Amino acid sequence: MESVKSQSYEVHINELAKAALNQHIAKKEYSKIFLLVDENTKEHCLPIFNKIIDFSIDSILEIKSGEENKHIHTCLQLWEDLSNLDGDRKSLLLNLGGGVLTDMGGFVASTFKRGIDFINIPTTLLSMVDASIGGKTGVDLGALKNQVGVINQPQMVLIFPEFLETLEKRQVVSGYAEMLKHGLIQDKAYWDNLVHEANFTDASCIQHSIAIKNKVVLEDPTEQGLRKILNFGHTLGHAIESYCLDSHDKKTLLHGEAIAAGMILEGYLSHELRGLSKLSLDEIKSTFLTHFDKVEFTEDDIDAILQLLKYDKKNSHGNVNFVLLQAIGEAVTDIKIPEELFQKAFAYYKE
């Protein structure tokens, strides 16, 4: 299966990934090789990874899994660990984990000694098709997602679909939401294939999603224009995710679960403001509700979620900017939403 070429690195899959990693390590004279894991990837993925590599790891760094640990205090501990273990500017950090770990590991590597090399080895479907591609790194600020970070590219990204066998079904389905998003914003045929026919965990589907995201990132690496379309469903989705993470009476949502709700809501806004057909809107809603449980929202919940929109990273000059759909496969950016439509969108979601 062909590798996907990005700006300064490649995304390799299966056997090509194994060969690329071992060749890279053999060629580069790293002073230290560090491996970052969490308790889950240490138990389930590290034994698989050890069979892939032809080199030795100098030190394994471990963090706690979960979005609630994606904050600067965890980074501080990792910077101290790297320093205490004699890490220098010629060190390498391998990030073996899901999106929380690759986001944070990339940020730690990008800032330690003003930047050391890192390689992302995503272990969840979500991180394979989304979080580990495009060079976005960072951490949350309280419950507000990805408020602190930098855009910096890894040396390479390595995809081993066998890691998906270590996951519970809920984690795998969470990644499916991002794959569906790729179809909604850029490729109707891919959307149709994912909805009606494809085994979405197949390597060819994973590669297709990576290629869509990579194409967008190549055209707009610093998110000045086109790359914003990757945020479809994320403006409200991130607010929902943050609210549920910070609320004691709400079940914490996985990223894909939150943006699935966000895509239905923003699909409704697309219908009202950009002419997305009612047929397409209903197809989007039924597809997501087939795979994701409906989230219950009270009026107080909705008010609190809408208050969180002011922290969205895409905001400019005090305006909340949305990505909407004109049709399945056609996205538009920088759309401002009349406030009364938010309540109508939530009413449509609840129907």
Task: Tell me what the structure shows.
This protein is an alpha/beta fold and 351 residues long. The chain folds into two domains: 4-167, Rossmann fold; 170-350, Up-down Bundle (Dehydroquinate synthase-like, alpha domain). It has helices spanning 15-27, 39-44, 46-52, 72-84, 99-111, 125-131, 169-186, 188-196, 203-219, 234-246, 255-274, 278-291, 299-308, 340-350, and strands spanning 4-5, 10-13, 33-38, 59-63, 92-97, 117-122, 139-141, 144-148, 157-159, 322-327, 330-335. The strands form four sheets. A four-stranded parallel beta sheet has the order 4-3-5-6. Strands 1-2-9 form a three-stranded mixed beta sheet. A two-stranded antiparallel ribbon has the order 7-8. α10 (234-246) crosses α11. The longest helix is centred in the C-terminal third of the chain and has 20 residues, at 255-274. It is globular. The protein starts with a strand and ends with a helix. 47% of the residues are buried.
Number of strands: 11
* Poorly predicted residue ranges: none
Q: Looking at the structure, what is the overall shape?
A: globular
CATH architecture of the largest domain: Up-down Bundle
Q: How large is the share of residues in beta strands? A: 5-15%
Instruction: State mean pLDDT (0 to 100 scale).
Output: 94
Largest sheet composition: 4 strands, parallel
Question: In CATH terms, what is the fold-level topology of the largest domain?
Answer: Dehydroquinate synthase-like, alpha domain
CATH class of the largest domain: Mainly Alpha
Number of domains: 2
User: What structural class do you assign from the helix and strand content?
Assistant: alpha/beta
CATH evolutionary superfamily of the largest domain: Dehydroquinate synthase-like - alpha domain
Q: Strand arrangement, largest sheet?
A: 4-3-5-6
Number of helices: 14
- In whole angstroms, the N-to-C terminal distance is 43 Å
- Reading the helices and strands in chain order gives EEHEHHEHEHEHEEEHHHHHHHEEH
Rg of Cα set? 20 Å
Helix content percent band: 40-55%
